[in-house]
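Q: Structure tokens for this one, please.
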Amino acid sequence: SSSNHYTTSYSTTQSGIYTFSSSPRAILNCSKYREPIAEQYGNIMYDRRVVRGNTYAQYLLPLTPQPDPSELRRQQEARRRAIERRRTKEQLRLRTPEPVEGRKHVDVQTDLYLLELSDKIDESSVECQTDAFLDRPTTPLFIPVKSGKDVATQIEEGELFDFDVEVRPMLEVLVGKTVEQALLEVMEEEELAILRAQQRAFEELRSAELVEVQRLEEQERRRREEKERRIKQQREALQREKESVEKIAAWAFAKQYLSELLPRVYGMLRDKGYFYDPVERDVETEFLPWVIKEVNNTLGKRYVARTILNTLIRDIAEQRLEAYRQEEQK
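A: Here is the predicted structure, written as tokens:
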């Protein structure tokens, strides 16, 4: 708890600015030391720190104290009532009618004195340093005051018991127990020797059986490998035989197919000119083009001469026709 209480007050100046001020006030009759925490005893079945259920799962205690469920329900109920009350006030509050078309509502001040509105409120803080709490010293241990009188009793030698008489049963028990323990140890050693002998015999028999099993497994492995090798060889032989049969069949089919294909191919190539006579090819490629060229040149010369002759004949005929017309006009 704090040693000082602060009083807070808000005041309004003429300019409409709110100021904050607080003045410290000392509290009397305040303890100087911290109050010790009283030990609380109760039923641990209702203690939150006692883990229940699965102890293997990690149970983490919250760092902050959890509120009471009844208090939470009370706070929720109060919050719900406040919301309903606020909603009811908003519904019952008289509202301004909706503005007509072309106008809108604007918030304005209607007070007698205008106040300057500002988002930032001027405030000032005042601090007061208090003395730190001192730990309370430990309460000394309570030692009750000694009361009564001290009394002593003297016991002489031989008054309590006779050693020779009282020690006899103890010695009988110790000796009997020792002899019984020795007999048990001897019987245990003999039993252990018999167990070791049986274990050695069992180990020898097991080793012999293990060697025989390994020999049989090795023999079976060799037989399996030999069988797989024979099967692989047989498969390879069958594969080679199949390939040979396929090759022979392919050779026979190719021979039969080519026996009819070769003459037809040769004839087709011969028709297309791949197989030719060199003399005939020379005549076709060298002589005949030269002859055709010379013939074309000769024919061209004849065509030119004929054209010139036709032109001369036409000119002469036109001249004579013109002269004949002139004679007629005279």
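A few notes: The helical segments are 69-92, 163-272, 278-329. Strands lie at 4-12, 18-26.
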